[in-house]
Amino acid sequence: MPTPRIDINLKKIAHNVKVLSSLFKSKGINIIVVTKGVCADPHIANILVKSGVKILADSRIANIKKMQEAGVKATFLLIRTPMISQAESVVLDTDMSLNSELSVIKKLSEFALLHRKVHKIILMVELGDLREGILPSQLENTIKKVLTLKGIELKGIGTNLACFSGVKPTTEKMDMLSTIAVSIEKKFHIKLSIISGGNSANYNWFSTTKDVGRINNLRLGESIFLGYEPLTGKPIPKLYQDAFMLVAEVIELKNKSSVPNGEIGLDAFGNKPKFKDQGMIRRAILAMGVQDVMVTGLTPKLDIEILGAGGDHIIINAKKEDLKVGSDVSFTLKYGALVTAMNSSYISKNIITPISAAAYCTIIEEKDRFHKKNTAIMPINEDHSPLISLQDSDFNLIFEKSIQKNYRYLVRKEVYKKIGRISKLLDNLGKKLIIRSAWRSFEHQQKLWDQKASFMKNKYPKKTEEEINEIVSMFIAPKRQSTHATGGAVDALIYDLRKKCVLNFGTNDGLHIDLNKKCYPKHPDISEEAKKNRKLLMKLFEDEDFVCDHKEYWHFDYGNIGWAVEKNKEYANYGILEESFVQSANLQYPDKVFFYL
Ligand SMILES: *Cc1c(COP(=O)(O)O)cnc(C)c1O
User: Could you give the residue ranges of the DSSP H alpha helices within 28-170?
Assistant: First the structure.
């Protein structure tokens, strides 16, 4: 991957816009998304439209044209008061514009007539921030004239705060805009369909106000892309703050002094630098500088400190982080950093696209075929470790009833210990591990196979034996290939003690699991809750060095051929243990009542 680059996660942007849209919609406010902060990147624009956004806004006509030429299907709003010299292009290339100058609107009218078009406008009202806007005292006068202009449709009014002077969009300011809207409608007998209250800085007003009044629109950029509220810099709940990540590479790493050596004059940018004496430190240089990005808007993901930057270098104190020459260092961005990075031709734009379910399944199936080929030739160096029944343990476990009579939930000794540690972790979370299955004899495996095959035969009576076998083999291994015969495989789910139910993993109803492609562990089309629960289950086992099956989120392997291939080992430790071996093993059962579900 090239560096420096900006990683753009479209899925996270889509999530943020959906969360904010439905939040604002809950009080009747529609949102327009402002694309200027991301240079109107068409990939981003398209994901916004796909997420339900109808109007895209930008301050530059060139950006609007870029989106149109890339085939983005939306209504386009120009949000910077148009240049009079560009009036014709405004009429031809945009659908709507924010305005504050009558002379400009007159020109828009002329070109609208010339091109037989109707151009929609929103009049901006000055409420104290002292950037664009008509003074409230002059608004009626302006509207009176605007209403006489042919080719111009007055869609509404709006205001912009918290930009030039940082004036907060308070309830008082918003109520003022509502009152102005009501009085205009009354006076001119018109209906204003858009009352646009502001930008991302309106979040706190929105969250705390009881009544949004007539405000029914906001124009949002920053909060959607960066997930925080600009007035305080606080993260907005449920949003991602890392949809954009800037990545730079370490080009030098040395122990050097924290203070320079010599007489100090002005630096490369004419400033007199100051230094804090921290003794000797690990100084790293990154190949990125203020020519690429507004460095003051960067927040490192690692525990490092930005000491300063030049045109082409950022100097950091690497502290205790494990960095070397060639390492990538990632940053989240504030708005200034986002805008400059997106604008920089030195920074490559890396779009991370959400994977479709079909593409994900194809990748998994390909991987699984490759995996099966390799497991077939994986050598086994049997370590003869014993099988122990999980029912002999004092671990807090729940057992799923088995079709096999007197099933004993046997696992290898090492696996037994791992399950013990996992069950302890779950105890602290108010949850319990459900053991569905562990060591299985060939006879047991055959039973499962036959059960599934007869179910499928009933479901698809026209299919041949071979076709049935193929479907069944997608989810149940033929007896001699099952890793469950090694004592290194465990099927597990999690029970929630508080809610008194099996967690939702996306394809289960309690213990019953529908066998389909959504059982592939990271399938994109399951609910967020199911994703979270699968993540928990997989993390518990993976932290104990298990590997999760490619196609079944509940199946975990350790020590056997499946595990050895996935972990790139030279050989597996656990081979198949046949019934005869297990029968002869001396197993003890204390008098216990097991918890079956
Ligand atoms: C930039 C801009 C916005 C969007 O501001 P964010 O802080 O990015 O939400 C809205 N309206 C106008 C007029 C703007 O110039």
Answer: 42-50, 61-69, 87-93, 102-114, 136-146
